[in-house]
Amino acid sequence: MRPSGRDLDTMRPVTIETGITKHAEGSCLIKCGDTHVLCTASIDEKVPPFLRNTGLGWVTAEYGMLPRATHTRMRREAKNGQSGRTQEIQRLIGRALRAGVDRNALGERQIVVDCDVIQADGGTRCASITGGWVALKLAVNALMKSGDLVVNPITENVAAVSCGIYAGQSVLDLDYVEDSDAGTDANFIMTSSGALVELQGSAEGATFSRAQFNELMDLAEKGVAELVTAQNVAVGA
Asked: How does it assemble (predicted)?
């Protein structure tokens, strides 16, 4: 029995509310159980220097946790004093979101996706990627509506979910209690067509077999499919 009482292949309740902020071109509040992340997407008509005059667009991300998102208060991170974990997660979010974008069609502009964790209960990077895609899609919709884009650069959805081996069983969508005591913890980032974008997995307490990995992969495919459905409902697709 999982601490939450969920079945092994059951996700936490997922809700995605859009139009959360007034000024961002795209925004949403994603709730995966008790993990809540505010995601905003901002359009910048300039690209980083290494992309100037290439015709290619860029999607990047920043990630942070509010001081009381966790059980105890943490200090705010200045941009130049970000922890290695924060830097790793925001690079991961950027890589993940770019996997679903045709950068030629986006044109020479940048979209910055900010993911701010309001409350953390496991899976914050996965929620950030899933909600970040919704904010990105809404920003692109704004560019399409204004006529600044003619061809939609979004090629497919990108979503992420955690899976792990808890108490000897493969489970989907770990919350904090499970994540902190899991023998194996993995994050699966996938597209709506089922392609893998990135996989982060490690044996925390014990090694895992190929058969167990296959179980985790099957769970991840189920979870991502459910998240993609939630994304499409949120953006009206």
From this structure: Homohexameric ring arranged as a trimer of dimers.
